Amino acid sequence: MPPSGSFKRTHPTSERLQRAQLCPSTSVPIILEHAPSFSAPMGKLEQSEFFVGKTTTLGEFLYRFRRDHLSNAGGGIGGMGGVGGMGNMARMAVFVFVRDELKMMAQTMESVYDEGVEIDGWCYLVYALENTFGSSGISDREDAGGA
Question: What gap in Å lies between CA 10 and CA 147, rounded to an integer?
Answer without folding.
Answer: 52
